[in-house]
Specification:
Helix content is 48%, strand content 8%. It has 5 helices and 3 strands. Helix 2 packs across helix 3.
């Protein structure tokens, strides 16, 4: 029976046996603790800060600051902090993606010229 030593049972101050619950078993965390809830928070907020907006758009905060400085992306200042409305970002992305669609449908000049020579 070597190696079958029992662990001591934790006892709280009142003398009752306390049960330890592994942190990935806590109800409502999904195993990720706060990380999971932070990821979904940006999706549900109408006004986002720079970190939330950068996660939502999939770019780094530095890139987002660059776009804001160049006025390439809709943003406003609240106090001394940049804020982004989710609806305006969605509208901006829709406009940008529709600008790209006609360009993607056109053939490059070299391909058009090569096709005409055949």
């Amino acid at each position: 029976m070597l190696g079958t030593r029992k662990r001591p049972v934790p006892i709280d101050r009142a003398g009752a046996v306390s049960q330890r619950i592994p942190c990935d078993r806590v109800i409502g965390t999904g195993g990720n603790g706060d990380r999971e809830s932070k990821g979904t928070m940006a999706d549900s907020r109408e006004v986002m800060n720079i970190r939330q907006a950068s996660q939502y758009l999939g770019v780094s905060p530095d890139t987002l600051y660059k776009y804001v400085g160049e006025q390439k992306i809709p943003a406003f200042k609240l106090g001394n902090r940049w804020r982004f409305k989710k609806s305006r970002l969605d509208q901006w992305m829709e406009e940008k993606s529709s600008e790209m669609e006609p360009q993607a449908k056109r053939k490059p000049k070299a391909a058009t010229q090569a096709a005409g020579k055949l």
